[in-house]
Amino acid sequence: MDEIRKLFARHNQVSEGLFSYNSAGACPKCGGKGVIELNLSFMDNAEVECPLCSGARYDPDVLSYRLKGRNIVEIMDMAIEEAFSFFNDAKISSKLANVQNEAWAIYRWGNRLTLFPAVKASA
Ligand SMILES: [Zn+2]
Question: Three-class SS string for 53-106?
Fold first, then answer.
């Protein structure tokens, strides 16, 4: 969410791109993928968790920046209800409300979006 990145950037007085793993904030080892692909000649390609960022995708330096005591990964991993009270910000709350209305989901706004199968009322 852009609002979150902006808040982080403003609060820490650094570039907004640092708080995006597909931009300047990407882990230098895995390039923001969180995994490293192993090319072993004797077996199929395999992926392992990136040893530098431990799958967090961000440059470890970026994780030293905090907003209200939490780093970007911790915040992006919050449950939505927790985020409401954490930010207590009208603009962010309205975005969160949209998300909550749209998705039948436990939504963790990083990249892990767990969707429940749509439940249809049986007639
Ligand atoms: Zn990495």
Answer: CCCCCECCCHHHCCECCECHHHHHCCCHHHHHHHHCCHHHHHHHHHHHHHCCEE
